User: Fold these one by one.
Assistant:
Number 1:
Amino acid sequence: MTIAYAFRPLLTAGMLALSLPALAQPSAQTTIREEQVVKVDGRAEVWRLSWIGPVKPFCGPDSGDDVITMPCSGFAYGEQGRLVLSRTLPGGQLDDRLDLSPLFAGSDLTDHEGNAVLPRWPILDEDTHRLVADDATLAAEIRARPPVAVIKLVDYDRDRKAQEFLIQTDVQPGGKRFYVAVGVNRTTGRLDWLRSAARPDRPLVLNWAAWQALAKGAQNIDVVRWDCGDHGSEVLETYRLSVNAGRIDVRLRTFACADAGGNGGLQKEEPY
């Protein structure tokens, strides 16, 4: 049996623009999720991840042992809502902001109501047996933990500026986590998500291993996206990655499993 992959078409730039609701009015409730001082072109800026409007649990501390199942992988113990990334200059004026909720529109997540989702408190290995045992004291302990840091800046596009961080936007069968890199667009100087050279019309969604390969300066490196035998797959899929001076090249390559090492087994290669 050949696995049926859930390749959902991502929103184009035009679709994203149409889908972005007007950013919240000053009267809307704003909850700062995380704040950091970031150096951009020699100046100190304040970057904030903020929830606009109501914030709801997602695989939260009261979800019991559901949080250790695949749909919660990477998101427990989390929150969901309308999420905005903003940059403020030293004088206090608002410079730039970006609505991140549309990045989740095509994900496989259940019950996220079209919202963005972020982990709030870390899940620990020792939580597993307590969740299974329905430990009534665990939820309060979880809420007392320091929040998970999200803004971890890395130079993913190798433009010599560590101005991007990853946001997990999806999880697929087997707990495979997929991410978008968000930061400053090197051309416009505005907040944006990274895109591949071949598909500038959509955000670039890759797994963790692929983003780490880009951070190390990948040049014609193959990173597995979906392996032989994984959930019945009869093919091996890889990302062929290269990055240089802000340009990210990605090609999706498909191999017959009998030739998964690349010995003549390439069936298809397409821009991604």
Number 2:
Amino acid sequence: MKNTSDNTEGYAASQRAPQKPSRLTKLRESDLWFSFWSHPSAIFAAALLAFVTITAFLAPFITPQNPYDLGALELWNSEIPPIWDAQGQWPYLLGTDTQGRDILSAILYGSRISLIIGFASVILALSVGLALGLIAGYFGGWADNVIMRIGDVLLSMPFILIAILITAVASASLPTGLKDVLAAPILIFAIAVPSWVQYARTVRASAMVEAKKEYVQAAKLIRVKSWRIMLNHILPNCMTPIMVAATLNFGLAILSEATLSFLGVGMPPDQPSLGTLIRIGNQYLFSGLWWIVVFPSIQLCLIVLSVNMIGDWLRDALNPKLR
């Protein structure tokens, strides 16, 4: 009877013990979550970016045509003005271009390309910058000098010039059939190459400070491997400025892609991004076909504006001096 009683009391005690909160519960109770819901501009920017992203990736299901399928374009439906114009036609809500391509469809498909290229270039630059910054800040010495001097060389040249040089070399080296196929990966690489330096410098500065603290010295004394110290101890303490920089650079990466495409070294006309659409529409701006360039430009501005607003909020929310 005593054993049964003890088991019953132990079960009851385990039932009364508080359960560990889930990650979702921790997020809802965090200061960051409270700061977000008390910041109207951050809510607006997040809702706008979510709407643009969802519509871009659902483009094949909500658009009247596939603008990348040149065989499906109808030239007799070209140069149709927006639907509110007297000459507008359904279902071309924002009109068509000179090839009969629906502007709304082209914008949504182009937004998807711009978002993917911007996000992938930030991830690539962030990965390289984190790795090199940790190595430079933790080990120092010749490794630090080599990495930082390479970064100084890249910073001494204009960003757009480096990107144009990379895309030009890639286009000249690749066969004609692969240029359009590899246009997006080349753009991602061209944008990421000059962008990793900012992440590396930020992580290096934080890593140099953390590497001198007692908990890192203690880990070295018990012979913890260097890569474990960098990943498990130093890197988590460097993530706050990196998150802010990555968010703001996401908008810059999208603008960089649009700039390169506008200059003719980005996405090809048969796979237009927002920059390519703006470049094509700019040729007809003074011929009365204003909608070809205006609506892609507005979409690009909305995306970059929402990303920058989120970045500004994140910078303020993660700054302990503003709490």
Number 3:
Amino acid sequence: MTTRLPLSVFIIAKDEADRISRPIKSVSAWVDEVIVIDSGSSDDTVAVAESLGAKVVHNDWPGYGPQKRFGEDQCRNDWLLNLDADEEVSPELAAEIQAKFADRSYRQADGWRIMIRDMYAHESAPAPWAYGYHQIRLYDRRKGRFSDSIVHDTVRPQEGARIANLSGIMAHRSIRSLDFQVGKYNRYSGMQVEEMRSRGRKLPRLRLLTEFPVSFFKAYFVRKYRKYGWWGLILSMNYAHARFLRVAKAYEAELLDKKEKP
């Protein structure tokens, strides 16, 4: 039987009944506990999570960062592994983490960055060229916590904390469908504008002209979406529109502010 590590996994979720089993199953056999923070699912998310042995805790949605900080507080171990409901730990990453706990080399750092690579519904594994990014997801909460930003959920290490990289990856199934993707971009762009305005940040109006083409170039060439063929063209167009939508909503908010002034 696999030895359970002194490690807590926490996952924030809402209406993820179709996806929540993957992240739980990818870790449940070898970690001490799996905690799902549910913000009011109307589907079977809670039932599915509990059937797989996860502890489910309800917390009304306060934003991404605050919700993850709430999740940190529910864990009984100081070493935490954070997953999103659309992610899963690869077998290679699972073996790497277990090996580091077995020889105690996980203590060589206070936080470990993990490569998170995009994976789409028609794929069985992330493509070798799939867009990815490193984030601290395995960490000692005594040396770092998630930020309290309502939009950006990023672990902020304390000054002097040691950070290193793991070689294994997480698969990221962020897109259920194009319909889902468009809705997600629409919601997220609104939250971005709300946060920018709360900080007094304004976007130059010139970006209404430049945002779409620059973002398309970034997606198609820099993120290598072109390697997906026609699917990559679709992804690039949607990414560019999402970035443009953020700028457009910011400008719309400025117009409404002027209207309200006497």
